[in-house]
Amino acid sequence: MTPNRVLLLLAALLLPVVARAQEKYTIEPLKSGPPAALSGPIREALEDHGYQVLDGGGKPLAQIWLRKAVPASSQPGEPKETVLYPFLGEGELLGAVEFKAEGHDYRDQAIASGVYTLRYGLQPVNGDHLGVSPYRDFALLVPAAKDKATAPLPAKRLEEFSAEAAESSHPAVLMFLPAPSEGARDAASMARDEAKNLWSAVLPLKLAVKGQGESVPFRVQLVVVGAAMM
After folding, report:
1. Number of independent structural domains in the chain
2. What angle do CA 105, 108, 113 make, to 5 degrees?
3. pLDDT digits over 13-28, tens only?
4. Which positions ≥6 away from 228 have C-beta within 8 Å?
5. Domain of 105?
6. Is residue 7 part of a domain?
7. Does residue 182 fall inside a structural domain?
8. Which residues contact 209 (CB under 8 A, 6 or more apart)?
9. Does residue 230 fall inside a structural domain?
10. Element (H, E) at 77
11. pLDDT per residue over 98-150, tens digit each?
12. In this structure, are residues 135 and 76 in contact, taking their beta carbons and an 8 Å threshold?
């Protein structure tokens, strides 16, 4: 195949990703509680309201519910090298998402419409993921039918279950980015990265910090539209 044909093929493959990311996305409060497809213990651990991401035509893309309080080993602080959230444990339940239509993860893997839990995970340091993201923090999607309890999932099981969400050999992942410093701590918003064609939901996560009585507000930025240009 000639170099020109290779470039044309790559452009054709990337076109759907770019087209999705160039739409204008918004987020609004969602008064309805977590979906019945979730197990009882997980549903009870989530807030009774959520957030809805809408596409440029006002059509729901995804609905997100956050955990009432995510266990944290310490107060949130500065990133530790390439880890944004060193105070979170791998496999910890963060929340749940329902894709109202087919979605895509950060690797541009197709995710069927349906309900998934969101679990915290770290990208392995093995040389296979160089250039995918400046940070190792991801939310892994797990089919609701596979996730029954709030306890952290062991890394191997989490990866296996998450791969089923994408019907592939690789986990279904949504990337975390540093949240903007400005904006209300208790409100959700959308953030746009024009250079990388990404849309992110900035969400008010609450942390249950070890040894502290009240939950600690902490904003996270989760990429919901767009993919790594690998």
Report:
1. 1
2. 55
3. 444 444 455 689 999 9
4. 106, 107, 108, 131, 132, 133, 175
5. 3-225
6. yes
7. yes
8. 72, 73, 74, 75, 87, 215, 216
9. no
10. none
11. 999 999 999 999 999 999 999 999 998 755 544 557 899 999 999 999 999 99
12. no
